Amino acid sequence: MGGCSSTAFAAGGADAMPMRRAVEACVGADGDRAQLRAYILSRAPTALDGLRRLRGPDLASSVAALADGFKRWQPEPRAAPAPRAAGAAHVRIDETALRGISLPQLRAYVADAAKRCKKEAWKSRSGEPLTPEALTLYDLATHAIGPLAAATGLSVVETLADGPQPPAWFVSHWWGEDLLSFIKCLEQHCKDRKLDEATTYYWVCAYALRQSALDDELDGGVGVSPFMRAIQLCDGTISVLDGKAIAISRAWCALELYETTLGRGAAYLHDIYTAHEFDNRQGEHFSAVGLVDGLGAADNGSMYNKSYRERYFPLGTLGGAKAFALRGAEASREEDLAAIRRQVGVNEQRLDRTVRARFGLQQLPALMRTDAQGTAEQLRALLDDLRGSQLRKLRVTFEVQVELSAAAMAQLGASLPASLEELVLYHGGGGPAIAQPLCKLIKDGRLPRLRTLHLNHLKLGDEAGIALAKVIKGNPTLTDVNLK
């Protein structure tokens, strides 16, 4: 998110996050949101209306009614939405978090804007002529979204949808990236995760918010803002990065990363995508590439397939995250940054380290090579951030033919955060080097949440393997172990 601002938002204040309370009453903290979204679509399209304004007994009653209705509901097959009839009346969707947008809707809206750009000779904010290929959300907000909101009082989604569209994915991005690149990223995301474009809704602030009524949309403070509410309904966040990763430097995106990495549980996904033209070794052409949290459906259960697909990600794009600090994040208004920092509160340093580690760990394999030159300081800084982070999942695939530094593997083992729930390391040597500090952390109870441990093809050796097996045997939390 990179373009909204409101006088109401600066107020901030404590809140009880009614949306989170309602969702967790139905499916639990880490439960599957898909069935709840289906229930809202088919049986309870207005169940969340006005929830953000409720407190005390009124909130408790509404939450109980939602949970009871959901538990009694029998899931039904979901048909693909029919095309919206031309000239159909606009629909009001009271709950902003339910204004997701599908890829077909987004493509159609942007295609119409491109035609208007040519016909109406749109100009940029600096007065330069605009071309359809160069249009950004800032341009769209000026020439299309703003005038639409002024004329109708509605969001873009409300002029495209026939009713609520609960989002499965929250999109964190910068408004300055060109629209076509943004769409390419979401298209590739759908392919990698094998999502149905017609029935998968993405929550994108520019299209979800009523831009003519931002004070009302953002009323109540950061904790109950539409961004935080939408994330409660989603399966994950997709960070769409421009070539310079400007999104990571924006205060609003920092708020979204805060809820993504520290607010939601380990089941919540965080994918990272960027527009990038390339041909793979099979000669297939791609216009975007993504770093998927875990395995994408297109990986067919193979860490090798995942590694091969993600090797084309331009790691230089992630460089902007190295110096991330919330206090230095950019915002259109100082009051917005102040409100976000108040929401994050005592977790600010932990957020800083978590964001730097989350984006920086993609460079870990290169920093740990035995032939790496002049990378010791960069590796130390990255592992310091990892140690002080609240990352819940760490999955790294090393190149098969590359020798890893035993000292670096030992450093990695000693730098694992106490919040870690999943550790998956694939390929490479250095197994014995990481085994010793890992054994100590597990034995001393400093990885109390670790449930999944996969050390595949790390050449552990008999001694290290036996030592790990002994520690694991006496640990009740480790339920998914693979040391082959």
UniProtKB/TrEMBL annotation:
Gene3D superfamilies noted in UniProt: Ribonuclease Inhibitor
Domain of life: Eukaryota
SUPFAM superfamilies, sorted: RNI-like
Protein name: Uncharacterized protein
UniProt source species: Diacronema lutheri (Unicellular marine alga)
Lineage of producing organism: Eukaryota, Haptista, Haptophyta, Pavlovophyceae, Pavlovales
